[in-house]
Design a protein that fits this description.
This protein is an alpha/beta fold. It has a single domain, classed as Ribonuclease Z/Hydroxyacylglutathione hydrolase-like (Metallo-beta-lactamase, Chain A, 4-Layer Sandwich). It has 11 helices and 15 strands. The strands form 3 sheets. It has a 7-stranded mixed β-sheet. Strands 8-9-10-11-13-15 form a 6-stranded mixed β-sheet. A two-stranded parallel sheet has the order 12-14. A hairpin with a 4-residue loop joins strand 3 and strand 4. The longest helix has 23 residues. The protein is globular, with a radius of gyration of 20 Å. Bound molecules: zinc ion.
Length: about 300
Amino acid sequence: MKFNRRAFIKSSSLITAGLFLPANKLIAALQEDLDNMKTLRNNVGIYTERGGTIGWYISDDAVVVIDSQFPDTANNFISLLMDMTHNKIDVVINTHHHRDHTSGNVSFNKICDTFVANENTVTLQKKFYGGNESDDTQIYASVTFKDKWSTKIGNENIIAEHLWAAHTGCDSFIHFENANIVHLGDLIFNNVYPFIDRPGWANIQGWINYLEEISKRFDNDTIFIFGHGASVYGGKNDLSKMKDYLSTLLDFINKNIKEGKSKEEIEGLNFLPGYEYLNDSGTNRLKNNLSAAYEELISD
Ligand SMILES: [Zn+2]
């Protein structure tokens, strides 16, 4: 059943309770009824509506948000924060430049002064979505970092880090140290075909190495948040599955190139061995993957 939040709030004593309840208790009360707002551990959770999964840290006196989806869904998220008596966001961090992770910045900008991202995020955002100086649809990071950025907010240590090119040229992962939760942005498309953005500096071998490095850094208790997928959070085994998919893709295309197949023939292949169960309807993702792998291997 699709839950009608407004009707619920109006008819519920939670609207009054919200004025007095600590944020985490209110989240617990709300999450039973709001299927797009979910606490994962401690004060960290996810918000899913449309576009890349939003991650959040919400304590009594601080709010940190990872990624921003779209202007309308970001406004819906703000509305939930308001219901928890929060009227400002301390920091918004963008995992990468893609529109479904950054275009809601414009909504968050109304209640947030600090936007953080890897420096390439700004470059790519300007390259693909930036208009002229008067364009007010894009909010760029006010704080950029090359490799690493960290802050202590509330009772959390939050660390954002960029290693190298993978899904794009600017992917960062954000670690909530105390909760042991890591937002991976679009480094994981869980059980769906990924999007490989070569014009946005993607590199499939880099992506494989990136996932290997992240697996080494975290433990079996770490909860990972994914940008997209059948389930948008999971564990290390989901990282292995994503890595296996990308390795199979490169190996398969390499084999086809060695057999003398042309670019057109490779793009015309309509399967990847072992992954026939993935659904490609309407997305053209398989063709995107085959062609990205071909171009990467040829250019090496
Ligand atoms: Zn993306």
